[in-house]
Amino acid sequence: MNVLVVGANGRVGSFLVDKLVENGYFVYAGARKDNHSSSSSNVQFVPFDLLASPKEMAEKMFDADAIFFVAGSRGKDLLKIDLNGAVKVMKAAENKKIKRFIMLSSVFSLNQDKWNESFLKDLTDYNIAKHYADQWLINNTELDYTILQPGVLKETPGSGKININIDYPGENSIENVVDTLVQSLQVQATIGKVITMCDGKTPIADALNNL
Hints:
- The chain is an alpha/beta fold.
- It has six helices and eleven strands.
- It has helices spanning 11-22, 54-59, 78-95, 124-139, 174-186, 204-209, and strands spanning 2-6, 26-31, 43-47, 66-69, 100-104, 144-150, 153-154, 161-164, 172-173, 193-199, 202-203.
């Protein structure tokens, strides 16, 4: 399978590209600059601008069978990148008839009742952007989506075990998040699901297969 990773140079995206290659995928690494260090013949850099039009984006999707959206502006341009950039990628995917779409979002972005709680107060603007991008994916597309919503990302070794459908956010190893993204592509039960997660006690494959 060929996959496009939008945001391939980010904290999650760079690990995701490597993990997908390890799992036998051919990866189009979409980013503004070719900063990825992989020398694998199964990775092709694709200049991908989230300020471009959906038509221009579609031309950069080539023969991808699935898309991962893991891009973000790190709070610098939430409306143009995290919200509208994501929506334009969805539109481009539909124009190219690419059905499978996996979105990296933020824990409880769809649950506004939790935004005033202490653990999310500093992320309100970010969650607003993610909220409406997630809503668009669910309500305004016919894509086979999975929305993964981890809490705080940590650069710690992954345990391969997570908790899902959580009530309170916990820390997330980037490695665990990446493994969950990859396995979401492989598990049919994740299609049409919004999955909140944190590091936990259940092997990732078991957690996803039991959705």
